[in-house]
Design the sequence.
């Protein structure tokens, strides 16, 4: 959501990352629990105890969300859909799918497994809570477990709402897709409901805020914002992928890109190329052969006083699958590679020959023309 994500750990082959916005949420959750929820429910404990409960509750929530997303990811992997990793952000998490599910039934099962796992974790926590009460665990301990039982139940229920891209919305989309065989229409309808529901939560949150229920108001507002944006973004993404699917790269490839010779010094590169053409990536070509590329990202790592004594060849990045793409790839492959490597330009390469450059900017210009003419 804010761009940069932090890697946390690897779990059964999936990378778990957090968006910086989640840190704010983790603090807000701990705070809401420590000063609101727990003191209200369990009287006469120390501030320190409430904070320990609040932090334990937030960590438990965090793990519950990971378990939920992990279930989606494992099911997706079984259906052969590549999942890059799990990112936790504002409200909940997202399993990063590189592709859309191939069929309505697959999507339905992938979606429904998330709420099922949350419901089961909730029930398990409730069982542990009952056991704890029976053997006489102290209230601050069983209180946190009861909270986790409740929050997992809530997670299951909230995710079952038919508001895309929540799981229930995905299930609705799968059902509509199954009935009419039209994924675009099914996405438009379910994303419309998702966006509308988000808007409702935003207004409902504002209403709570005005009437003095600040914490509840704030949460409703944030969740509504998240949902509305996510619904709109998912629909946009689908339109983008559908429109670009199967489009060959030559339709928007620049076939005579600016290239640089390997013996050029960095100060000359910056002056004569970067400040002239304003690109962030330049292929390095010697005797008609592509030897690598130089990026502004790479140049930033070189101290300024070294620029006159350093040549492009000294610091160029070699060609690799992250900065190159074959001529037979289609636009969606280029797009997903750019997204994954966080770059806006790819070199189109046939063995060691540079055929051209595809840029995100040109691809988007093509996309908007195609949407304008064909829809
Ligand atoms: Zn889910």
Sequence:
């Amino acid at each position: 959501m804010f761009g940069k994500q932090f890697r946390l750990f690897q779990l059964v082959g999936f990378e778990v990352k957090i968006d910086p916005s989640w840190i704010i949420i983790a603090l807000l959750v701990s705070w809401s629990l420590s000063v609101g929820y727990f003191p209200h429910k369990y009287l006469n404990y120390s501030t320190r105890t409430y904070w320990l409960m609040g932090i334990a509750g937030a960590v438990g929530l965090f793990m519950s969300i990971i378990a939920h997303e992990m279930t989606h990811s494992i099911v997706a992997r079984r259906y052969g859909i590549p999942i890059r990793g799990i990112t936790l952000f504002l409200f909940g998490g997202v399993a990063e799918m590189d592709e859309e599910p191939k069929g309505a039934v697959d999507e339905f099962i992938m979606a429904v497994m998330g709420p099922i796992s949350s419901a089961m974790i909730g029930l398990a926590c409730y069982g542990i809570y009952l056991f704890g009460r029976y053997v006489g665990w102290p209230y601050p301990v069983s209180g946190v477990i009861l909270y986790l039982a409740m929050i997992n139940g809530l997670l299951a229920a909230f995710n079952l709402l038919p508001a895309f891209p929540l799981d229930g919305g995905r299930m609705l989309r799968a059902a509509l897709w199954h009935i009419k065989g039209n994924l675009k229409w099914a996405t438009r309808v379910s994303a419309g409901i998702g966006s509308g529901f988000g808007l409702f939560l935003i207004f409902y949150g504002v209403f709570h805020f005005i009437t003095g229920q600040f914490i509840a108001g704030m949460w409703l507002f944030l969740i509504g914002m998240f949902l509305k944006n996510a619904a709109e973004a998912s629909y946009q993404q689908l339109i983008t992928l559908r429109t670009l699917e199967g489009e060959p790269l030559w339709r928007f490839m620049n076939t005579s890109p600016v290239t640089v010779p390997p013996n050029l010094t960095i100060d000359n590169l910056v002056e004569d190329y970067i400040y002239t053409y304003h690109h962030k990536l330049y292929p390095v070509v010697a005797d008609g052969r592509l030897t690598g590329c130089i990026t502004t990202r790479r140049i930033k790592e070189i101290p300024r006083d070294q620029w006159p004594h350093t040549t492009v060849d000294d610091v160029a990045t070699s060609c690799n699958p992250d900065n190159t793409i074959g001529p037979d790839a289609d636009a969606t492959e280029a797009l997903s590679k750019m997204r994954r490597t966080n770059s806006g330009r790819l070199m189109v390469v046939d063995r060691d020959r540079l055929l051209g450059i595809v840029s995100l900017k040109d691809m988007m210009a093509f996309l908007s023309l195609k949407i304008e003419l064909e829809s």
About this structure: Residues 68, 72, 114, 159, 167 surround zinc ion (CB under 6 Å). The first strand starts at residue 6 and ends at 11. The longest helix spans residues 47-78. The mean pLDDT is 87.
